[in-house]
Structure formats: structure tokens, C-alpha cells
Amino acid sequence: MIISVLVEIKFKQKEKTFDYIVPSVMIDKIEIGKRVLVPFGKQKLEGFIIEIKEKSDYELREIISIIDEEPILNKELLNLGKMIAKENLCNLISVYQSMLPKAYKASIKTNIKPKVVTFISLTDKTLSKNYLSKTKSVKQKELITDLLNKNKELKNKYESYVVRSLLSKNIIKEEKEEVYRIYDKNECEELRKLNPYQTEALNKIKNSEKDVILLNGITGSGKTEIYMHLINEVIQNNKQAILLVPEISLTPQIISRFKNHFSNKIAILHSGLSNAERYDEYRKILKGEVSIVIGARSAVFAPFKNIGIIIIDEEHSTTYKQDHNPKYNAIDVAIKRCKYHNAKVILGSATPSIESYARSKKGYYELVELGKRANEAKLPKVKIIDMKEEIKCGNSIFSRELLENINDRLEKKEQIMLLLNKRGYSSYLMCSNCGEVLKCPNCDITLTYHKTSGMNRCHYCGYAQNKVDKCPFCKQGELKSFGIGTERVEEEIKKIFPNSRILRMDIDTTSKKGSHEKIINLFMSHKADILIGTQMISKGLDFPLVTLVGVINADTILNLPDFRSAEKTFQLISQTSGRAGRSNLEGKVIIQTFNPDNYSINYAKNHDYIGFYNEEIKIRKNLKYPPYFFIALLKISGKEFNISLNESKKISDYAKKNKSEDMIVLGPSVSNVSRINNIYYFQIIIKFRNKEKIQELLNNLIIITENNSKINLDIDINPISL
Ligand code: ADP
Ligand code: ZN
After folding, report:
1. Contact indicator for 519, 505 with CB cutoff of 8 Å
2. Residues 134 and 209 in one domain
3. 561-597 burial by CB neighbour count: b if 16+ within 10 A, else e?
4. In the chain, N or C: fewer CB atoms in 10 Å?
5. How many structural domains compose the chain?
6. Using CA atoms, how far apart are residues 591 and 124, in angstroms rounded to an integer?
7. Do 673 and 444 meet the contact criterion of CB atoms below 8 Å apart?
8. Measured between alpha carbons, how far is 296 from 269 in angstroms, rounded to an integer?
9. Are residue 558 and residue 601 in the same domain, yes or no?
């Protein structure tokens, strides 16, 4: 028997496999989708069995061993991987690897194994009762009494000499058992009764003949409750469900709602788990012990065999697109998987992406709308503050109205959330004498001052230096900090409201495992009055006591040179506003901006998604952006500025010469951040309509640039940002 193996090395030919002979003793165990260990030159490599054949033209070596008892990738996933690799022009092996948890990757020597514990139990009840009446040892008596009540107990609960003695007398026996690192109680709360609007939406979803449904429900309209009803039905039909959520920061609340009802039928997959915990959760799925998976992007690959539904919550979220290779989009993957399983995809959002909404308007997706908040709570009033006016009065961080409102909520013992999309203390440091700005030595980006650690940091390459006061350029002036970050907001709020209790949630305060949950739980139980955070706090969280939300600077995203900047601003403001007034207490939102007339801010203020959509879609049409055109983003990078620029020009010329009629080639231009870690970046944008034709063009470009060691060409089909 001969097998083709896809080894753990990336080759230029993206699906290159190697043939090996299977020694006769192993033939029985060979199955497609299992991993094997093979000799490769002088190394030993792991690889996936892709094909079983009878003949090969080459002289072959034998495989060393078979790694898996069961295939870890089934036929559906193996095929899916091929489609993803083709569409995203990336290596097949990298797709297969991103389908699996880290513990399965050979290159990472985690050495994670199932956790096995030893239990003890009584060999015979009558025998042990006899013994109990005779023995004088108090400790032995205790142990036997425990086991009479409980059947089995963990061995390490008792002192080893006691256990040993009873084992030797054959009073007790021991047994090994696999336990999971995340263990759920088997409790089950009833599902809530849906209100009439939710019921109508649910029925429309169930009766739809379309494969994809866009559930556009305002924040707090009860989408999550609908998800639970849908999933309930799916698992009653013995099928399985996947729920994708954008990021770990909002999973604690959703997970606890699901666990209250579905208890131990759920596996959780997200980056907040340790590798070992992930491994266990994955095994629960492989062994068929759970029928629901909740997780971030990569959970879309959960190895279920009979999927009934895939739900993508907050479908507009950028986290569903992987920003490194393979640059797949979980929504596309979900649609492919559901086609295979004849299942439905539900995309849920209060602010759907322009692309998704356009598709629903065209009739490709079913559009289901929910316009009322579930518990009759009203949408909050939104006030826009023109910071140009505030600056005139000397207020650069907080407007008068925001401070008055914070004060009012503190007095009423209600809660406040303040959002600023910039971590650290300040945005940049500038010399008050020569005007030079402190930049990262490796990147074309300003350094951010972090007061807590006393460091100036680069948010791109991680470079850090101790804080300096004197200007390193003119050696005379003082460096002053400009712009504000979350650390600064926290410090200023503390000064103004010294008695308030403040929490901060951003990357810097949540690097430790479990710190998200901790902050969320503290705020939920009203151990703090004010939660300050980056966009991490904008989505999904449900705090009934929050009646004021302040957006410190709505312009951070608006000013990005990206065609989606208005859309992202609208989403951020709407989502953040959605955190206010979710219970019977009325909510208010204050948005501080230097662009008070901007359309995205004003539509968000009026909770008018459709108004925003109608305005934005016109712009997209005029400028030939998605959804009217797809985009391929080509990034060319290299160590030498001139060589990289020249090669970029050559690539652009080739694309212009060989493009099909419906393509538009733009560039090369310098990337937003032109230098990162001493590598220069240029970009070319190709707008296209036909997927086959762009693949052909790009594949040719890959072949042409492949042997050029001076530059690297990176391709992103339908990038999430430019
Ligand atoms: P969304 O996911 O659309 O933002 P949620 O599902 O979180 O909305 O619901 C918002 C709030 O309304 C939650 O506190 C939830 O418990 C409550 N809620 C939702 N549906 C119902 C219902 N049918 N009956 C009572 N309360 C509900
Ligand atoms: Zn840097």
C-alpha cells in the first residue's frame, strides 16, 4: 500500500504531497485524514494522509508510524481546506493546521495529553461494612464511610498510606479515568418564552428557503434568545450547532447564558483557554460528547459530522477574517460548510456589514428584522458634542456635559462606561522646543507612552524604551505628551472624581488568563462605578445598571484612510450606545467629536441603520468599492526601499497588462504604516468581479515573484482593512 502525505513544510506548489510505502503491519490502520510520521531527507516530519494508492512511479521510503487512532480531519474538512487554499491563494497545509487546535501541531512541542485521574471505590459493600466494624484506624473508617455514601472518590483526597493499606487488603480498588479540564454541572434552566416579535422572527427564519439568513435586530432586541431557541431545535433533531462570537471579551456573558440552559452539551473554543483546555474541548467534539460549540473564528472548523446550524453573532465584526495566512473569512467558511450539511447560516447583527445587508436586499440572503428591545427598554438618547467648542473653553479630554452626567450617575449610584479606542497614556510625544515627534526606531509610527510601566512602546513591533524627558533630537526641549489613551482617561477621571471606583479594560489590563471575566464580573456586581475601555467594551456586554456611555473621541477610526472608516465608525458608535439603558433605567450616550456633521456619526445618533446604509451604498457604488467590486490587496515588502518600490511597480505593470476588462489596478502606493520592523511596505489594490479570473492573474504573479528573494508578495482577497 502507498499513501500520499501532505507534510508540515510549506512548498511553492501549494498542495505538494509525497508518496510513502506503508509497512504491512500498519496497513489495517491507514485512513485518510490521520496523521503519520515520515522520514524526510534527514528529518522526521508529521503529515496528513491525503490519498491511498496502489502504485507510484518513484522509489519510496516507508512511513515511520501512524499518529492518530482516529482521523482528525474528515473528508468534509479535507475538501473544505482545498477550497479555502484555492480561493485565498495559500498553502493547503497552513489551512489544515488552522483547522486544528495548537496541541495537534507537530511544530509546537506542547506535549499535551488527556488528563487522567485515579478514582478509588469499594470492591464489595458487605465486605467493607464488616471491615468497618473491626478496624481501629480512624482514617480508614473515614475513607470507607465516604465510599459507602459516594461510590467513588479521587484517590489523592486521602493519605497514601491509608489507601495503600486498604488496597492491599482488597477492600478498595482503583480505576483510571479521563477527566476534562473544563467541567460543567449538569443543570438545565428552561428557555425563556419569546415575545411576539421574537416569535415572528424565529418563524420567519425557520420557514425561509434561503441558505443564509441575516437577522438584523437592534441592540437588546433579544437575538441571543432566538439563537438559543434555534439551537434547541437543532439538537432535538440530533444535529449539531456552532455559534461564533467575535472575541473572548464578550464570551463570559453569552457562555453563562448558554450553559445555564444547555449545561454540559457545550464545548468552548477561544483564545482565552490554555492549550490543554482547548485540547480537551476539542476532544469532547471529536468523541461526539457535545452537540454545541461556542467559539471565536476558528470554531467554524469544529469537526461535527451532522451540522444543523451555524450562527455568527455580530457578523459585521472584523475578527471573523483572519489577518494572517490563511486569510479565510469565517462567514464564507460557514456558508460552505452549511451547503455541505444542508444546514442554515444565521448572521446576526444590529449593524450588519454593508456587504451582508446589500446581499439581503438583493435577495441572496433572507432578511429578518427585529426593531424593538426585548424588555421594552427604550433606545438611549444620543448627544453629539462638538469638541472644537470645548477646546475653546479649555476642555480637551472631557466636555462639560459629559462630566455633569458622570457626576449625576455617580450620585444616583448608576454605572458609566467610557470608550476610547486607544490604549496607553498618550498617543505621541513631541518636543516643545524643536517640534520633533518621538518615533519607533524600527517603524514609521509614533511611540505611545505607557505610564503604568513607565515605558514608551511601539504598538506595531513591540519595541519599548524607558521614558525620556529631554528631547533626543535637539537635546534642549522637554518632551510633552499629546493625544490621550485609556490610561490617561483613567488618571483624569480619578482626579476629578476621587471617590469613584474605576475599572479599565484594554489589552494591557487583560493579558492574564481570566482577567476579562474578572473585570466583567466586578463591574456586573457593581463593585465599580466606571468602566473605561477600548473597543473591547463596545460589543455584546449587558450591564443593567449602565445608564451613561461616553465615547471620548469618535474620530479615531473616522480618520483612518480606509473606505470602511465610516462604516466602522457607525458600527462602533451604535454598538457602544447599545450598552446604555438595557434595563428599565433610561440610557444616555454622549459622543465627543471634532466632526459633528459627519453622516456616520449622525445616523448612529438617530439609531438609523437604513439611513446610513442608503447613504453609504451610494458612495461605494460611485467609488467602485465592495459590494460592487471585490478587492484584492497585494502587499509588497522588502528591506530596501528602492528595490521594493521598483518591484512593486513591475508587479503593478504586469497586472495592468494582463488584467481582464472588469479589473481595476491601483498603485503601487506606500502602505498606511510604510515601515514596520525595518521592512518597507507598498500596496497595490485590484478591484475585480470575477473570482476565477483574479485567481489566474494572482497565481501568475505569485509564480513570477516567487524566486525574487529581495521582496515578499502577500495577497489578501477581500481584506477587512486597507
Ligand atoms: P441582543 O443579543 O439582541 O443584544 P439579548 O438577547 O442580549 O439581545 O437580550 C437583551 C436583554 O433582554 C437581555 O437582558 C435578555 O435577558 C432580555 N430578553 C431577551 N429576550 C427576552 C424574553 N423573551 N423575555 C424576557 N427577557 C428577554
Ligand atoms: Zn516599532
Report:
1. yes
2. no
3. eebbbbbbbbbbbbbbbbbbbbeebebbbbbbbebbe
4. N
5. 5
6. 72
7. yes
8. 7
9. yes
Closest residue by Cα to atom 23, ligand 1, is 194
Ion ligand 2: residues, CB < 5 A: 440, 442-443, 458, 460-461, 463
What pairing do the DSSP bridges indicate for beta strands 588-593 and 546-551? parallel
Q: Is 172 in the same domain as 201? A: no
Pocket lining: 192 vs ligand 1, CB cutoff 6 Å:
yes
> Are 106 and 8 spatial neighbours (Cβ–Cβ below 8 Å)?
yes
635 within a domain of the structure (yes/no):
yes
pLDDT block averages, 10 residues each, the chain of length 722: 89 82 94 94 92 86 91 94 94 92 64 80 89 89 89 88 92 85 69 94 97 94 95 96 83 82 88 84 91 95 97 95 94 98 97 97 97 84 94 92 97 96 86 88 88 88 89 90 91 96 92 86 96 85 91 88 92 88 87 95 95 97 95 96 95 96 93 89 95 95 90 94 84
The domain that contains 336 carries what CATH number?
3.40.50.300
Q: Which residue puts its alpha carbon closest to atom 5 of ligand 1?
A: 222
Q: How open is the CA angle 432-433-438, to the nearest 5 degrees?
A: 60
Q: What is the DSSP string of 233-245?
A: HHHHTT-EEEEE-
* End-to-end Cα distance, the chain: 49
Q: Give the position of cell 441603520.
A: 609
Distance 198 CA to ligand 1 centre (A): 10
Q: Which helix (H) or strand (E) holds 717?
A: strand 711-717
Work out which ligand 1 atom sits closest to the CA atom of 221: 3
Domain boundary among 370, 393, 414: 370
Distance (Å, rounded) from C-alpha 444 to C-alpha 465? 16
Q: Are residues 62 and 162 in the same domain?
A: no
Instruction: Measure the CA–CA gap between 193 and 179, rounded to whole angstroms.
Output: 35
Ligand 2 centroid to residue 672 C-alpha, Å: 14
122 - beta bridge partners? 172
For atom 14 of ligand 1, which residue has the closest CA? 542
What is the extent of the structural domain holding 691?
A: 630-717
Order across the sheet with 18-21: list the strands: 18-21, 2-7, 43-53, 35-40, 65-66
> Which one of 370, 397, 413 terminates a domain?
370
**DSSP-derived secondary structure for 421-458:** S--SS-SEEEETTT--B-B-SSSSSB-EEETTTTEEE-
CA atoms within 13 A on the CB side of 227: 32
Mutate to test the pocket of ligand 1, among 195, 224, 351 (most ligand atoms within 8 A of CB): 224
- CATH code (residue 696): 3.30.70.600
The pLDDT, as a whole number, for residue 109 is 52
Measured from the CA of 217, which atom of ligand 1 is nearest?
3
Cα–ligand 2 centroid distance for 439 (angstroms): 8
